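User: Predict the complex with 2-acetamido-2-deoxy-beta-D-glucopyranose.
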Amino acid sequence: MRRVSIRLIVSAIALSVCFFVLMFIVNNVNDHTDHLELPPYKCECPLVVEHGLKAEKFGVPKIEAPFTSKIHTSSNNTQTVPPLPICKPVNKSEPVQRAIIIYYPHHQSEYFFPEVRWLYRSWAEMLRDQPPTWRTDFLIFSYNLSTEFRRLGCVNRIRKTKDEPSACRLFLYVPIQFRVKAVVENNYQHAFDHIKDLPKTTNQNIEEIVTLPKTNDPMIYDARRSENLYMHLRTYGYIDSINTIFEGYHTFKMYDFVLRTDIDVFIYRHFGKYIPANCTLITGGGGYGTDFNRRKLRRIARDMDFAHVGLSGMGSTWYGSAYDGYLVANQTLNGMLWLAQYEFATPERESKLGTLMWPEWHYGVLLLYGQHLAINHLVGTNQIRIRIGSDLLDQSTTDFTTQYVQQGTRLNLHCWHTDNRFSKFAFKMGHYKQAELEKYRNDTTAQAYAMRMALESKYMTLEQMASLVQNISTSS
Ligand SMILES: *[C@@H]1O[C@H](CO)[C@@H](O)[C@H](O)[C@H]1NC(C)=O
Ligand SMILES: *[C@@H]1O[C@H](CO)[C@@H](O)[C@H](O)[C@H]1NC(C)=O
Ligand SMILES: *[C@@H]1O[C@H](CO)[C@@H](O)[C@H](O)[C@H]1NC(C)=O
Ligand SMILES: *[C@@H]1O[C@H](CO)[C@@H](O)[C@H](O)[C@H]1NC(C)=O
Ligand SMILES: *[C@@H]1O[C@H](CO)[C@@H](O)[C@H](O)[C@H]1NC(C)=O
Ligand SMILES: *[C@@H]1O[C@H](CO)[C@@H](O)[C@H](O)[C@H]1NC(C)=O
Ligand SMILES: *[C@@H]1O[C@H](CO)[C@@H](O)[C@H](O)[C@H]1NC(C)=O
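Assistant: Here is the predicted structure with 2-acetamido-2-deoxy-beta-D-glucopyranose placed in the model:
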């Protein structure tokens, strides 16, 4: 009895010493992070915007997010890593083929179609600055052949040659949430029954229409994972925008470069002439990294047997070779599945915590965490070269300085969760009027560009926009 209680006292003392040391460390870490600057935060939380309601603003506390682009080679893997694939840079004087790729949720068209309109309008604007031998297609994956896309001039064919004019292309794809048994069975035989009669009305050959997934090719279809995605991630809003980059690979592998992007972006004119140098995959910046989750993600990478090289702060826009995009998509899906199953509890997955845990650990940014694991692994195993291009991708649409325009570096603008101009929420609620277009006519800021593109896209008919693209892409 006596011996036990002495031991108890000793261990109690030891424990409290540990505790104080821990508190000290934690406090110091916090002190340390407090003075660092932070970039604006783009929330990847799946959007649920009630029609007519004022969109909720995220109360996001300030956090540090150093954009480390240095690779820390702290962990020396015992395995020998193969050398990086040989880099054959694309020659800018030769024809260059590119694709801007989105996934369009056809069942939420009221919310997303305005974004497609302005993205389409800005794609047309960018085409004006593109060298005459270059081509940039706008690729859309969706589960319906909505007439809107026909009116926009979108075709359902894969690019065949290097000199076809730049075009909008729509490919059919079964989203994860619709992969119920009746749809999946017999190799998705009945998955496209709902559009069977549509091609006839448009004199189109159904065989010509690309449908995904293609289940007979293991490179682009993994039945087990597809099932897992359905089971664990079908309610996660951004899963299809990644899965299409995996399952859709054969529809875009002929391009030298692809831009994977959300829909709420504007392609900026500088994109017209810019391609990634030195075979890098460029990502935008993402403000999700705290010391807490960087450590956690490193530990998770170890659990998964993934390499981790200390990269952090990658955003959700990717610009690089088609194959690099495919590799990142594949591993991002693996990372997201792991995280959803083993690193988040049910109440977190069901959003019961709201943004309580942000920025330390938040289910809404699962895509960014999954991609963090993927990119660290692929860089650590020499499969891709990365550049975190916070200076290149995803400038805020609220930026009213001319600095970046003069520097000529920004390739696209991305909407933030904000009510400041340009706000996608205010725009969709009809707060911006056509009469304001004049005000922004000679204004060269990002804000004015977004205002102009969005307003023009709203007041042009779909046929006018299609004709604009045709005029620009055939005149060069
Ligand atoms: C790490 O790997 C490199 C290359 O194989 C080797 O030269 C170096 O000695 C290793 N460092 C450690 C700490 O093991
Ligand atoms: C790029 O292409 C141009 C035109 O075909 C050619 O003159 C030039 O030598 C090429 N540059 C390189 C680095 O291959
Ligand atoms: C699919 O597109 C057709 C043609 O635009 C439209 O009539 C139909 O309502 C759409 N279905 C869904 C579910 O969006
Ligand atoms: C590409 O690599 C070369 C040689 O390593 C380097 O000089 C150049 O700055 C790199 N370009 C970019 C845009 O990183
Ligand atoms: C895709 O992910 C799977 C599962 O981790 C992996 O086995 C496979 O090698 C990956 N595919 C490629 C092309 O890297
Ligand atoms: C924009 O520039 C044009 C030509 O320089 C000029 O005629 C026009 O008045 C300007 N518009 C505004 C709103 O400043
Ligand atoms: C495209 O060109 C045709 C013929 O020149 C013209 O009639 C039409 O207005 C142009 N469309 C747009 C949107 O500029």
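Residues 327, 330, 334 surround 2-acetamido-2-deoxy-beta-D-glucopyranose (ligand 5) (CB under 6 Å).
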